[in-house]
Fold this sequence. Notes:
Layout (H helix, E strand, L loop, with lengths): L2 H12 L11 E10 L10 E8 L2 E9 L5 E8 L2 E8 L6 E7 L3 E8 L69
Parallel strand pairs: 1-7
Antiparallel strand pairs: 1-4, 2-3, 2-5, 5-6
Organism: Granulicella cerasi
Protein name: Carboxypeptidase-like regulatory domain-containing protein
InterPro entries: CarboxyPept-like_regulatory (IPR008969)
Amino acid sequence: xxxxxxxxxxxxxxxxxxxxxxxxxxxxxxxxxxxxxxxxxxxxxxxxxxxxxxxxxxxxxxxxxxxxxxxxxxxxxxxxxxxxxxxxxxxxxxxxxxxxxxxxxxxxxxxxxxxxxxxxxxxxxxxxxxxxxxxxxxxxxxxxxxxxxxxxxxxxxxxxxxxxxxxxxxxxxxxxxxxx
Length: 180
């Protein structure tokens, strides 16, 4: 290849279609997720990125952590504002915001066990949650077992009707005694 053909190839690389734009600078983001009580990496935690740039939504992205507890993303533009949310079973949801203003961003997140609900009536700051970690299901109380119904005590005897007897007595309203 001659020097002239190299110059033509270089010119072709610089000439693109009329709507071509160069790719924006992207931030290399690494989030490391650990268990707060022992520092072990947390695998399969959902790391959710919500990026906005110039007040416009750039979309949501979700990445699962690897066995080392790391989630790596190279798709967010430099200068974006990012809302980060991390969800893992048995741990309280983590949320924070940061600006992707450098080509590299690294964060370490220590996940905590669920805490008691915040209340204006009671100081629950730092108290553990009353619900156990994991999926909470509603358990309906068991109904008492049905026992066979006992017959009612001293029930009145059934009412029977009798037919009037046929007699030859006069219809005067009085009956005569039978003769012996």
